[in-house]
Amino acid sequence: MNIEKVLQDSIKAALLQKFEVSENEIILQPTKKDFEGTYTFVVFPYVKTLRKSPVELGNTIGEFLKENSGIVSTYNVVQGFLNISVSDSTWLSIFKEISADKNFGQLPDKNETVMVEYSSPNTNKPLHLGHLRNNFLGFSVAQILAANGYKVVKANLVNDRGIHICKSMLAYQKFGKGETPESTGMKGDHLVGKYYVEFDKHYKTEIEALKAQGLSEDEAKKQAPLLIEAQEMLLKWENGETETVALWEKMNEWVFAGFNETYKKMGVSFDKMYRESNTYLLGKETVEEGLTKGVFFKKEDGSVWIDLTDEGLDQKLVLRKDGTSVYITQDMGTADLKFKDFNMSKSIYVVGNEQDYHFDVLFKIIKKLGRSYADGCFHLSYGMVDLPTGKMKSREGTVVDADDLMSEMVETARERTNELGKIEDFTSEEAEELYRTLAMGALKYFLLKVDPKKRMLFNPQESIDFQGNTGPFIQYTFARISSILRKAEQLGISLETLPELNGLHESEQEVIYLLSQFPNRIADAGREYAPSLIAQYAYDLAKAYNRFYNEVSIFNETEEDLVRFRLAFSKITGETIQKAIALLGVGVPSRM
RNA sequence: GGUUCCGUAGCUCAGUUGGAUAGAGCAACUGCCUUCUAAGCAGUAGGUCUUUGGUUCGAAUCCAAACGGAAUCACCA
């Protein structure tokens, strides 16, 4: 049964029968905490047309609902707000339906494929906090879409070539003294990142020297020998020069080994890897196609452009005069490739909001080229993670490293857990497993509870909380429920059949209401690509259960049916909490 | 300068398509462990929703302007 649907239909009927008003959409909202009731219907909009007082309208509709809907127990009218209370028997039958549904939380199959591209790192430096937000977001959105009934392809387009990669390579060649991850004990991505920073250091010195000779800032930046050498290296790479390619392959392998380790710790995975070294030449035929279709035009120097001034944008280069690609050229080609590979109806790009303009242009081009998948393309643009000191900058060493942060979180989890001393009988493996679960729960929840679109602040001085609106709080609620269920098992209480009850505690009713909302929230989160909605839901559910936990005793209850109901109720709540935070990529411990 | 986004408690954030007295957490203060895990629960205090106009029964939400902040405006990716 869909309570909302029943109420909406009943309200429509009331409006029609009592006031001869036919309304096709009735909007219900959750009742505010301070008032009695679960759903609220606002009658203000009808006051004027019907020339009745809000109170009279509310009472008339409320009375009608009570008599005819079959599910309304009481109602109250405050000003123009009709607050509706649903009967306990209705909540109980809702609870039964949820219990019986093995796939609760999995929406019907949509028979559509959607691609979520995320992570997409550069192979010249290790991952940092910003990447964590990207990866957690992408992974979570993929889970949420799968729960919405889509077939999901998680893709990673690795930027493994280009001038920035050559910078690391060059610095390594010049200053590396043959270091390897093995010889230094450094993770491969960190070792390569060290040389990216090294490059920048020497490059800056050169710039200063040139400026001292009287060159302008811009000239100095362009003429610094190191940069010129890096550009030459890129050409060598593009020409397939053996030595350069070998160095590139060696260093890339180091980075990939490092990334894989980090991905594993993060708990993210991919179904399809694309590498720019394989895709960077794509898109040139698309440029030809665009020229014949008249979407693009060629300037005298031979460069190819698109004019988007009628769309409020500028002219944008899509192919250089020497015939080489730019970023957007390969993105056009890659979009075609992805579609050819998976024939998906939606393609989500999880990329930071600094690239808003790029994707705006890209999608407009795809549209103008008449691609069938154009309307399914979506840039999931998320805000930057800022530090109290401002923006993170790799080259200036002001980044929060992903590996470091995750390790610190594990340490914090260890300290917190040991202070509480609840797991002294754990083996060290079990304990380590728990620390990781809690650490990643805290970190993921912290990054995902915020609306993806908004930029957010991370203060490294203040460790991420384990209390309040946090991942561990939700995990703790699950652990509590697990504990109860263990005890029930010891006592040999069967949860096979549900007992018949005639009433509910207020806290139980609130939890059942929240349980009934789970499918809606999954749909909302899927439509908005917003894991934050699921995070908020999981928190609300855990909070409501904890209230029940404190107000209602299970094993001290003498009436056996009540004990069995409360156990079944706890079990379903635990399962739903688990399912909800699994959508965030967060796991649950059975004890903590 | 053009374009886009943002401005809510001391701090970090919620706030559905306009609805009631603007909500959580942290930090501060009060209670609650002889009872299923106190990483919890209940409560107190904390607000000119940046400002000024407008739209209407009603605005944190929509419109306009101002102020403050961010991103972007590369033949980089």
TrEMBL record:
Top-level taxon in the UniProt lineage: Bacteria
Motif 'HIGH' region, residue numbers: 121-131
Matches recorded under SUPFAM superfamilies: Anticodon-binding domain of a subclass of class I aminoacyl-tRNA synthetases, Arginyl-tRNA synthetase (ArgRS), N-terminal 'additional' domain, Nucleotidylyl transferase
Lineage: Bacteria, Pseudomonadati, Bacteroidota, Cytophagia, Cytophagales
Catalytic activity field: tRNA(Arg) + L-arginine + ATP = L-arginyl-tRNA(Arg) + AMP + diphosphate
Family assignment from sequence similarity: Belongs to the class-I aminoacyl-tRNA synthetase family.
InterPro entries found in the cross-reference section: aa-tRNA-synth_I_CS, Arg-tRNA-ligase, Arg-tRNA-synth_N, Arg-tRNA-synth_N_sf, ArgRS_core, DALR_anticod-bd, Rossmann-like_a/b/a_fold, tRNAsynth_Ia_anticodon-bd
GO biological process, one term: arginyl-tRNA aminoacylation
Subunit structure: Monomer.
Ranges of residues in domain Arginyl tRNA synthetase N-terminal: 1-86
Protein EC: 6.1.1.19
One CC-aspect GO term: cytoplasm
Keyword ATP-binding applies: yes
UniProt subcellular location: Cytoplasm
Protein name: Arginine--tRNA ligase
DALR anticodon binding domain sequence ranges: 474-592
Keyword terms, alphabetized: Aminoacyl-tRNA synthetase, ATP-binding, Cytoplasm, Ligase, Nucleotide-binding, Protein biosynthesis
Primary location: cytoplasm
UniProt-recorded Gene Ontology molecular function terms: arginine-tRNA ligase activity; ATP binding
